[in-house]
Amino acid sequence: MALIKSISGIRGTIGGHPTENLTPLDIVRFSAAYGSMLTASNKSAKVVIGRDGRISGEMVSQLVIQTLVGLGIQVVDLGLSTTPTVEMAVKWENADGGIILTASHNPKEWNALKLLNKDGEFISAEAGREVLELASKDAFQFIGVDKLGAVTVNDTYLDKHIETVVNYPLVDVAAIRGKQFKVVVDAINSSGAIAVPRLLHALGVEDVIILNEEINGRFAHNPEPLPENLSGLSAEVKKSGASLGIAVDPDVDRLCFVCEDGSMFGEEFTLVAVADYVLSHRKGNTVSNMSSTKALKEITLKHEGEYFPSAVGEVNVVNRMKEVNAVIGGEGNGGIIVPDLHYGRDALIGIGLFLTALAQHKNGIKSFRSKYPDYFISKNKIELEKHIDVKDIFEKIQKKYKKQPVNTEDGLKIEFDSDWVHLRTSNTEPIIRIYAESNFETTANNIALRLMQDIKEFL
Question: I need a surface site. Which of 101, 151, 268, 419 has the fewest CB within 10 A?
Fold first, then answer.
């Protein structure tokens, strides 16, 4: 079905033909290319590996691990883990890099190799290009039997990650415990079934209901934590009289909440609420990608900080955060990045900070949500055929809207007074994403529909 090779990793559907899908041959080739890049500067390199709960996870993990062993690399295998846990473990292990085996929000037939540097952050564009070049030429050489690498299994890092969240200075466990929250968690049949309940108990939340708890990778619904996929969570929150609901994606780097009446807090406002709380204690700048809500900019200005947009993609957000010394940042898809913990999206620290802010609010989560504006983002996508020239389409659209302010840093963002629309190709799927924001839901939908018609007209 698909194999997407990008500078940040390799993503595709399991099965099919090599070079067209994510087959065992492709997994070995790209693992060998990444490992060869590392061993070029350190013959005794160490790499941390972790995976989410996907059906293909164990197979992919074994292929990656043994390929690295064949290059003489020392592998630390975390087994079933979360993306942010692997990122933190790279630094704790003083490793040369890491590979996270997850296709994040993609359906069950997908998997991916997300590649990290020695800082536990996604590799740079330059390093990514080097990996792709090495893979394209099969430019790697395996070592002899006397110098094979070794594998160490370590399943303690999730607990260390949770301990770090619990001890984070802005997380108030006593306040959370005092509220006696009842929480429903949609664990989407993956790593969140272990990580989120364990964190909640450590934060003093005793009454926890887990939906889709079995870790089998056969996702009970579309795994992207969007409102249309969370009807079951919403119903259970209302039925059980819970204080709130929590949803994460399969690798636990995205986070969203459901209010006590079953309504959505809004994944765009996960970052807004956490940033509001952090900025009330630490003055500074914020960053989000340009497909995220304008509410973060407004909150930042209220706290006398400065807001900076970035191109979409975690590595781009992180780079901009470093440039402007941001104290909090992330993406409107529910990705929270707390830089003094680590430079990566992390649902676990997001839960700790959000529950602290909620615990300090007098009333429930619905009342808490009312602190923030009701902006609406219409999120849409159009699937692409392989031959489509997206650059040409965007140039034609830019010409059509030449009287409007336009940003071409990442696709095409067009501003209409206080509204905006952002068109860009996905980093993870063969699609064009069309996001539009307005104060009114119908306006946002109409802007998005208008641009989708433009795209189809120029196809």
Answer: 151
CA 301 to chain centre: 26
* Average confidence score pLDDT of the chain: 95
Closest to 192 (Cα-Cα) out of 241, 244, 254: 254
Residues 344 and 405 occupy one common structural domain: no
Using CA atoms in the order 124, 427, 89, 357, what is the torsion angle rounded to 10 degrees?
120
Tell me whether residue 292 is one of the annotated catalytic residues. no
pTM above 0.90, yes or no: yes
Query: At 126, which CATH number?
Result: 3.40.120.10
Closest of 141, 113, 118 to residue 40, by C-alpha: 141
Greatest Cα pair distance, the chain, in angstroms, is 67
pLDDT tens digits along 269-279:
999 999 999 99
Q: Say whether both 39 and 75 belong to one domain.
A: yes
For residue 410, give its domain range: 376-458
Same-domain status, 407 and 352 = no
- Return the closest-CA partner of residue 323 out of 308, 341, 302: 308
Say how many domains are in the chain: 4
Let me know: does 121 contact 87? Beta carbons within 8 Å.
yes
Beta-carbon contacts of 144 under 8 Å, excluding residues fewer than 6 positions away, are: none
Between the CA of residue 95 and those of 32, 91, 117, 120, 263, what are the distances in Å?
Answer: 17, 6, 9, 9, 43
pLDDT recorded at residue 306: 98
DSSP per residue, 77-139: EEEE--HHHHHHHHHHTT-SEEEEE--TTS-TTEEEEEEE-TTSSBPPHHHHHHHHHHHHTT-
Q: Which of 31, 56, 104, 438 is catalytic?
A: 104
What is the per-residue pLDDT for 7? 67
Task: Tell me the C-alpha distance between 318 and 316, whole Å.
Answer: 5
How far is it, in rounded angstroms, from Cα 331 to Cα 123? Answer: 18
Say if residue 8's pLDDT is above 80.
no
Tell me how far the alpha carbon of residue 73 is from its chain's centroid.
27
Same domain, 248 and 127: no
Is residue 84 located within the same domain as residue 128?
Answer: yes
Q: Indicate whether 337 and 400 sit together in one domain.
A: no
Residue pair 223/106 in contact by the 8 Å Cβ criterion: yes
Q: Do 29 and 113 belong together in one domain?
A: yes
